[in-house]
Design a protein that fits this description.
Elements: E1 2-9, H1 19-32, E2 36-38, E3 43-46, H2 49-64, E4 70-77, H3 85-97
Antiparallel strand pairs: 1-3, 1-4, 2-3
């Protein structure tokens, strides 16, 4: 499965930023060893259901250490038996576009 998720603390720093809290979540994902990518809005992670959900929970817990309230947005593509889709899905689109 691939899960795209965004975690945000309810509290921000003095400039309104949440980067330090979000970095805690990204650190959890990177340490997981699962295939992943982070962009400006979401982090995508690929693996088996239990692996991915464990990473998401630990990422939420990491942000909760610095914020009394945490928001989580989660979208999942659940396709048993498929791996490497984090890259292959994009490659299929690029082939169609001729890139």
């Amino acid at each position: 499965m691939i899960a795209a998720f965004s975690i945000s603390p309810a509290t921000a720093d003095e400039t309104g930023g949440v980067a330090e809290a979000v970095a805690r979540a990204v650190e959890v994902v990177r340490a997981s060893g699962l295939p992943h990518e982070t962009n400006a809005m979401f982090t995508n992670v690929e693996g088996e259901w239990d692996e991915v959900m464990d990473v998401v929970k630990r990422a939420v817990d990491a942000v909760a250490e610095v914020s009394p309230r945490v928001s989580l947005v989660l979208k999942a593509d659940i396709r048993p038996g498929r791996t490497g889709q984090l890259v292959e899905k994009v490659e299929r689109i690029e082939q169609i576009l001729g890139e």
